[in-house]
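Course assignment 3, question 2. Fill in each field.
Student: A.L.
Task: Predict the tertiary structure for the chain below.
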Amino acid sequence: MDTIINGSKWLLKLACQAGVASMLFLAMAPSNAAVATAIGTGNFHSCAALSTGGAKCWGQNSYGQLGNGKTVTSLTPVEVQGLSSYQITAIAGGTYFTCALTSTGSVYCWGFNNYGQLASKTLVSSTTPVAVQIPTGAAKALTVGNNHACVLDTYGNIYCWGSNSGGQLNRNVSITHSSIPLYAAGMNDVVALQGNGFTTCYRDNKGGAKCFGNNKYAQFGIGTKDSTDGATYGAPNYALGLSTNVISTSASMYDGCAVKDDHAVFCWGFNNTFGALGFTGIGIYSTPVAVLGLRNDAISIITGISHTCIITQSGGAQCWGMNGTGQLGNGRAAPQEAASDVIGISEKIISLSLGSNHSCALLESGTVKCFGQSLSGQLGTGTTLYSPVPVTVPL
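Answer field:
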């Protein structure tokens, strides 16, 4: 449900420097053509930021998560209202809501708001974007979980809002939710963050990986798990063996993963029947385990609810885990444990974003390709038929 970029340095450029990605893509496309500069997926919807400004979304829209002022599902991309004058550097979807970060550091959210996901000081949902008031003024990175969101501000602070049912706001679960951004204490020198489900993982400036939120399934990778949701909060500890040399982290509903600078991939947490952690053996793994069978060229990783993908040095992608509707993009639709190549993409993949049962890729040219389930139109091609191979989204 969130997005990684092809290499952590590219992520920082995209998040911190206004217009970097859009200038690159515009140079490759006709001046009047809108191409994507960032992508994000929710459980059953998808979105893309556009080089010409603003964003488009497609898929399920029961609570206005497409941001077009309606609550009607769309099988093709529709324009998000009120953002056309902004260059969007990051966009991410939750279960039924979406948030976007602009090049000026402003944050906007829209959709379902039953837990304060829109940070609008109310629990009223909105079918159009609502401005989020970050206490310190501006954000430089954004991530979204099922029913919460977090930002990294320009001073290195993390603020989160929405549901706290699993401790995802880094507060005691007696605070059930927040409709305003709350400071997440105990985290310093944060470089990049990525959340999903009820957990957020981040990389600090020492190259270490830490996670906060829910640890009931050992999502922190610290050697222990909690007996109840959100029992551990405050200053996080490093995932074991990952205190340095980490270049990418990712969190999911039930697990976490990281890539080190030698391209080794590690995952931890709950390994389900689909092999979401990349190896056999159903159970809870409280310490990071090496994912074997890869080509030793991973540079970034993204985790979905039951599937996981990496981007390689050459700009390709490999995925593993649940594949019942083709969300691994390998041309098949059957459970798949071992990593397999995403097929049908001839140019470099810049970023990936994973929904519940679908995946989307942003290519170097600004093209967006999606694959997997499309019952709600989350592939954006005008059909509800799933596709086990990447299909181009008409932006």
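Instructor remarks: The radius of gyration is 18 Å. Residues 2-30 have pLDDT under 50 and may be disordered.
Grade: pending
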